[in-house]
Amino acid sequence: MRDELILLDCWASSYGMRVKIALAEKGLEFECREENFQDKSPLLLQSNPIHKTIPVLVHNGNPICDSLIIVRYIDEVWHNKSPLLPSDPYERSQALFWADYINKNIYSIGTRVWRGKGDEDQEIAKKEFIECLKKLENVLGDKLYFGGENVGFVDVALVPFTSWFYTYETRGNFSITAECPRLVSWANRCVSENQSVAKALPHPSEIYRYALNLLSKDPK
User: Fold this and answer.
1) How many C-beta atoms surround the C-beta of residue 77 within 10 A?
2) How high is the pLDDT of residue 120?
3) How would you classify the pairing of strands 5-9 and 31-34?
4) Arch. (CATH architecture) of 5-77
5) What CA dihedral angle connects 162, 167, 169 and 171, to 10 degrees?
6) Rounded Cα–Cα distance for residues 166 and 12 (Å)
7) Domain assignments of the chain as residue spans, ordered by start
8) pLDDT in tens, 199-215
9) What is the CATH number that goes with domain 89-216?
10) For the whole model, what pTM was predicted?
11) How far apart are CA 138 and CA 41, in angstroms?
């Protein structure tokens, strides 16, 4: 009997992209259901009654919430193919640490960058954002991927945000390529050499149009 996998998602969500990559890395078929944030589906409200947010993966009727928890769940359930987390306990702890670092910094700081209006906070956010990326670039070092020779847990945690890089740069008037060239090369490699990533990430121009649409609805 084939597993039933339903992903409750929004196409522009970096968190949902993580789950799509992980599922693709495992070769799993799934149904993706787009959520309307202004009219959330009964399944979403039932599956994630605490936060009422996406993504949610419903596996044979059982909901799993929070993107990194979902990715880890996928890796543990289908552990025999394309492992994302290292088997070594120390290396696994480091991967979890940096994925958590990404979770706590990239979205929140990046949002301040692209939503900024040339104010002081936007300038501060740009500096903080580059500092975060440089730290991650140092962790990457000379490796092909954060996971070594193959895409791993940290790669899955970070690469979806690269689809927003053009939006960050355009709205913030700075160059991530100039500041973090090795990280940008890694991002390009992830897309060009991994179908699981290429299919999950929207084109940067689509994300930019999405961001501008959100800004047009901002009462501020």
Assistant:
1) 13
2) 95
3) parallel
4) 3-Layer(aba) Sandwich (3.40)
5) -160
6) 14
7) 5-77, 89-216
8) 999 999 999 999 999 99
9) 1.20.1050.10
10) 0.96
11) 42
